[in-house]
């Protein structure tokens, strides 16, 4: 069944019947989702779109489940903001991709500045993972267990976990996660896997370490923070996704945005952005074990990009007034055209590989 894409004006503001999630599910994905924050409620137009399951079928908390938010001091856990997001998702009948447990950044000082042995760090990791996942047990479809553990050259990023445990910390984290919530899908998540084959191979190495330890790992999340003019082709993106499918894993785009640099954007850069969003979404559709797509915010007014990258922005499907951009139209049309071409996610078990030319490394612009 193909779903119409409608727009209309009601009492002033533009009301967009985006239906991205409905279209994505009709095309065989499990969800089309977005990152969310408790502060989103301050923008009524944005919040209305965010809370409609036809638009988004999955939430990821942008910061509320990170270590500094959930365990700011040792053994004292705080879940207020995360609970508000999870409860809203469940009320809306949406899935939760929960994020994140073990990450080098946004650690409270007691973790980042602590003096840890192998045993004491193992105990800290077990306590944190068990408490946080235990609190949300049964509510998270998936967890990003380890996040951003690689440098762009494929080497391990220095962090307190690596310093104390060496590369065994990957299997340790996934082991504790599997015990805390056996029903959750457990992911390794990172950025620039799409750009750098050597980094993508580093993620393969992490997966194999966990698998060799006999510990469950179910997927790799590719963050997909892209730059207009630098996004790999649909074929090369598909090739990268299939590196992980070959390891009997699911894959997902977990933090998708495509920033424009330099600003201001214009009709040409917005059209280029639309084509690159189409390539990203299309590559997921090309891989039967690509579960779904999560935007890292869907409106330019809520994007993290302008505060992080100089003279860059306008990275989302909707503009600062929550009105659809050409990229929204491109993604919607692509999803609509894919209706019925892939089995619904709950019956899709194919590990069919899509052959693509091995991509060359591409350097993203900062």
Automatic annotation (TrEMBL):
One of its GO terms (cellular component) is extracellular region. Residues 24-334 form the GH10 domain. It catalyses: Endohydrolysis of (1->4)-beta-D-xylosidic linkages in xylans. PROSITE patterns: GH10_2. Its EC number is 3.2.1.8. Keywords: Carbohydrate metabolism, Glycosidase, Hydrolase, Polysaccharide degradation, Secreted, Signal, Xylan degradation. It is an enzyme of class 3 (hydrolase). Pathway: Glycan degradation; xylan degradation. It is found in: Secreted. Its main location: secreted. Gene3D superfamilies: Glycosidases. GO terms for molecular function: endo-1,4-beta-xylanase activity. One of its GO terms (biological process) is xylan catabolic process. It comes from the Eukaryota. Residues 1-18 form the signal peptide. Belongs to the glycosyl hydrolase 10 (cellulase F) family. This is Beta-xylanase. The lineage of its organism: Eukaryota, Fungi, Dikarya, Ascomycota, Pezizomycotina.
């Amino acid at each position: 069944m193909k779903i119409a894409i409608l727009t209309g004006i009601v009492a002033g503001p533009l009301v967009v019947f985006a239906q991205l999630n409905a279209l994505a599910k009709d095309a065989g994905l499990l969800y089309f989702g977005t990152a969310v924050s408790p502060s989103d409620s301050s923008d009524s137009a944005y919040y209305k779109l965010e809370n409609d399951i036809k638009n988004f079928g999955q939430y990821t908390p942008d910061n509320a489940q990170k270590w500094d938010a959930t365990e700011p001091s040792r053994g004292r856990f705080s879940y207020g903001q995360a609970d508000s997001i999870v409860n809203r998702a469940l009320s809306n009948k949406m899935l939760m991709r929960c994020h994140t447990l073990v990450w080098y950044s946004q650690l409270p000082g007691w973790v980042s500045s602590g003096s840890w042995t192998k045993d004491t760090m193992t105990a800290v990791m077990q306590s944190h993972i068990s408490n946080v996942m235990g609190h949300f047990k049964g509510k998270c479809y998936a967890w990003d267990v380890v996040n951003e553990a690689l440098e762009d050259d494929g080497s391990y990023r220095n962090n307190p976990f690596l310093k104390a445990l060496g590369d065994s910390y990957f299997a340790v984290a996934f082991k504790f996660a599997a015990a805390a919530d056996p029903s959750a899908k457990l992911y390794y998540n990172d950025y620039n896997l799409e750009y750098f084959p050597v980094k993508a191979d580093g993620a393969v190495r992490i997966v194999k370490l966990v698998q060799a330890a006999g510990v469950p790992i179910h997927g790799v999340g590719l963050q997909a923070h892209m730059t207009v003019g630098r996004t790999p082709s649909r074929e090369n993106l598909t090739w990268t996704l299939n590196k992980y499918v070959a390891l009997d894993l699911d894959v997902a785009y977990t933090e998708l945005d495509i920033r424009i640099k330099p600003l201001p954007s214009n009709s040409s850069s917005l059209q280029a952005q639309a084509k690159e969003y189409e390539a990203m979404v299309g590559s997921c559709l090309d891989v039967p074990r690509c579960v779904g797509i999560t935007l890292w915010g869907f409106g330019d007014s809520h994007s993290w990009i302008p505060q992080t990258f100089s003279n860059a922005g306008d990275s989302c499907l909707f503009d600062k007034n929550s009105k659809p951009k050409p990229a929204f139209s491109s993604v919607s049309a692509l999803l609509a055209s894919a209706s019925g071409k892939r089995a619904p996610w709950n019956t899709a078990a194919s590990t069919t590989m899509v052959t693509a030319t091995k991509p060359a490394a591409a350097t993203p612009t900062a």
